[in-house]
Fold Quercetin dioxygenase-like cupin family protein.
Amino acid sequence: MKNTVISTDINDYVVRKAQKEWQPLVEKGIHYTGISVISLHYDQQKERSTTILLRFEPGASYPYHNHPAGEEVYVLSGEAIFENVVLSEGDYLYTPPGFKHAVTTTTGCTLLFVVPEEVEILV
C-alpha cells in the first residue's frame, strides 16, 4: 500500500461552475445524441468519473443498461423517465446493485448521478 499525500487545501476539492463545460456524452466510442455531460469527480483509481451531471435534450434517451454497483440520481431540472416512472425536479432515485433500466425524457432534464462502477449497456 503506497502512501498518498492528501491535500489539506479545500480548494483542491471544489469544482467551480466556470471550470467546467458541457461535453457530448461519448462512451466506448458511442455518441449519445442529445446528452451532454460534466464530470464533477474523477476517481483516479477507477480511471473514470463517478459523480457527473447529465443534461438530456427533449426526446433524448440512454439505452437499457445495468448498474453493477447501483447508482444515485437527483433531478435538478425537468423530468426524466426511468422504467415508465416520471421523476421531476427535486426527486431522488437510488437503484441497488444489479438494477437494470433505460432513461428518457420528453421535456429535457438535468440530472446529478453518482455511479460507483461503470454501467453495462444491455441492448
About this structure: The CA atoms of residues 24 and 30 lie 10 Å apart. The radius of gyration is 15 Å.
